[in-house]
Specification:
This protein is an alpha/beta fold. It has two domains: 45 residues; 118 residues, 3-Layer(aba) Sandwich (Oxidized Rhodanese, domain 1), CATH 3.40.250. 50% of the residues lie in helices and 10% in strands. Strands 1-5-4-2-3 form a five-stranded parallel sheet. The longest helix is centred in the N-terminal third of the chain and has 43 residues.
C-alpha cells in the first residue's frame, strides 16, 4: 500500500470530524431556537404579553414599561411572582410586598427559591439594569415567562402611589 493512500484517508477523516463538529453546533443552535419558540407558544397559550421585539430579535424575556408592569401587577386574574434582584444594603422605599428578594450577585446559587420555570415572573432592580442581567440568566436556565420591569424601583408606579397617599 502506498503512503499517499493513508495520507488521503487521514485528510478524509479530518474533514469528516470537522463536519461532525459543525453538525453538532448546528444541532445545538436548532435546539435553542426550538426551545425559544416553545417559550413563545407557552406565552401565547397563556395570554401573556409577548413583545414584537422579543420575537424579532429572539429575546428570551420581555421588557415591560413601568405602566405595563403596574397593570400586570394589579391584574387579579394573573398568578405571578415578583423577584427583586436589588442589593440588600440599598435603600429603596417601600419594597414590593411579598416579593422574592435575591440580589443578582447571588441569583445563580439561589434560583431554587423561584417557585416555577413557567409561572410569570416580574424581575425588578434599583434602576432596571441588574434585572436585565437576572432575566438573561433566568431565561438561559429555562425560565419561560420572565419580564423585566424597565426603570426598576426608580420608576415603579407602586412607590409613586404610596408617596401620593402619604402626602
Amino acid at each position: 500500500m502506498d503512503v499517499n493512500f493513508f495520507q488521503k484517508l487521514d485528510r478524509i477523516e479530518a474533514s469528516l470530524n470537522a463536519l461532525e463538529r459543525r453538525l453538532d453546533r448546528l444541532e445545538k443552535k436548532l435546539d435553542a431556537a426550538i426551545e425559544l419558540n416553545r417559550g413563545y407558544m407557552v406565552k401565547i397559550k397563556n395570554n401573556m404579553y409577548l413583545s414584537d421585539s422579543a420575537i424579532l430579535f429572539g429575546m428570551t424575556y420581555c421588557d415591560l414599561s413601568p405602566e405595563m408592569a403596574w397593570d400586570f401587577f394589579n391584574n387579579s386574574d394573573r398568578d405571578f411572582d415578583v423577584l427583586d434582584v436589588s442589593r440588600m444594603d440599598h435603600e429603596v422605599p417601600s419594597r414590593i410586598a411579598h416579593s422574592i428578594h435575591i440580589p443578582v450577585e447571588n441569583l445563580a446559587l439561589r434560583m431554587n427559591e423561584v417557585r416555577s420555570k413557567t409561572r410569570p415572573l416580574l424581575v425588578i432592580s434599583e434602576d432596571g439594569i441588574k434585572s436585565i442581567k437576572a432575566c438573561e440568566l433566568l431565561a438561559s436556565k429555562g425560565y419561560l415567562n420572565v419580564y423585566n420591569v424597565s426603570g426598576g424601583h426608580e420608576f415603579w408606579l407602586g412607590h409613586k402611589n404610596i408617596a401620593k397617599k402619604a402626602a
